[in-house]
Amino acid sequence: NNRGVVVGTSEGVPLAPPHAFRWSAAYGIEDLGAFTKGIASFSSAMALNDAGMAAGFSSYDSGDRHSFVWTRGTGLADIDTLGSIDSIPVDVGARGQVAGNVFVSPISDYRAFFWTPATGMRDLGAAGGISSGVTAMSASAHVAGVINLASGFQRAMSWTKAGGMVNLGTLGGPRSNALAVNNNGQVVGFADARDGSSRAYV
After folding, report:
1. Which residues lie closer than 8 Å to 11 by C-beta, 6 or more apart?
2. What pLDDT does 16 receive?
3. What is the pLDDT of residue 107?
4. What's the confidence (pLDDT) of residue 33?
5. DSSP string covering 60-128
6. C-alpha angle 37/43/46, rounded to 5°?
7. Spatial strand order in the sheet of 164-167
8. What is the predicted pLDDT for the residue at 13?
């Protein structure tokens, strides 16, 4: 983050599963732990905001992977409130919001999710598609990603609390993808043009 803190995954000694870590100049490398102990206690940190909140996922003995948030005050907290077998965070907002992807049993596929401490985890739907996925979120909690259509093609999507999920369309071809978003609401990615070429867009 902008304060020089790093999170990620660190390999243990032989027979010890990888764990999420946090590194800072003040504390060095710290093991963030996992939801269970023993050989199944895998965890990985995926994202971090400037306030020091980390997000990642950890496994249980059943093999289920649940998203977590970590702060020094609360430690590891399970945020998978949809009863899912798998959820993976992508980014953390400035106010502790988390966006990521959660497996939804009725459709046997993933949907974009948005989590806050106040509201818990929310399935963002698919805006007319069959599934969706988060690829990025800005510090101001503007989400970008994809909608998966029944045709097999993807469409870039944008989601905000105020506007919901929006299909961003294409440049005349069948598919598009969103890769990043900033605090000004600008989304970038690639999209197919009418001639079949793939073009960068904003």
Report:
1. 18
2. 83
3. 86
4. 94
5. -TTS-EEEEEEETTTEEEE---S--SBEEEEEE-TTS-EEEEEEETTTTEEEEEEEETTTEEEE---TT
6. 165
7. 131-137, 143-148, 154-160, 164-167
8. 75
* Residue spans of the chain under pLDDT 50: none
Give the C-alpha separation, 47 to 1, whole Å: 9
Give pLDDT tens digits for 21-60: 999 999 999 999 999 998 889 999 999 999 999 999 999 9
Phi and psi at 39, nearest 5°, equal -65, -20
Per the CB < 8 A criterion, the answer to whether 2 and 14 are in contact is: no
DSSP assigned state of 139: T
* Residues 68 and 59: beta-carbon distance below 8 Å: no
Q: Tell me, what's the pLDDT at 136?
A: 98
Q: First CA to last CA across the chain, in angstroms?
A: 25
Global pTM exceeds 0.90: yes
What's the CA gap between 1 and 141, in Å, rounded? 16
Tracing tokens 């980390």 back to the chain, one arrives at 54
**Could you give the dihedral angle defined by the CA atoms of residues 87, 140, 178 and 105, in that order, rounded to the nearest 10 degrees?**
20
Burial class (CB in 10 A: 0-12, 13-18, 19+), 164: exposed
